[in-house]
Amino acid sequence: MKAQVSRDIATIPNALSASRLIGVPIFFWLIVGPKRDDLALYILVVSAFTDWLDGYLARKLNQFSRLGELLDPLADRLYVVAALIALYLRDLIPVWVVIALLSRDILMSLVLLYLKRFGITGIPVHFVGKAATMNLLYALPLILLGNFQNVYGEVAHVFGWAFLFWGITMYWYAAFLYLRQIWALRRSLHAN
Fold it and tell me: Can you give the residue ranges of every domain in the chain?
């Protein structure tokens, strides 16, 4: 049974998602400004926990809203983009990683703008897309941890790059699946 989406925006899950959004610029500044990677990682851990908690509470309290459906993936995307740019500015990742991930997001944004012409405001999220985002949300902090000069840093560096390569691959594969889904939807619209 699908949950009822409410128009009420004053919900606990929405407040948690909003707090995640507030953390994005602080997270970015901590990495590129004072280089307080420990505090930036703390914010990322808290963000990951509140990401899980807002979904859990939305289901438990039946507090689903259209705003929540928009805020949650927006916060994920902003953390990924902030981490990408910050890690690039710190010379922890090469520019091709930034281009590979941001170009995919730009492509999908343009496709969604195109779909709005037909009254379609979104497409269902695919499991591969969620898995890709999770890989990236693991990869980027691990790469930041990989900057620490100890055994934990060395292990984090290896796992961070493994998650990153897998995440980029799945991210683009998910884009392919979304485009195929959109193509089928477009053909069904033209058939009617």
Answer: 1-91, 94-192
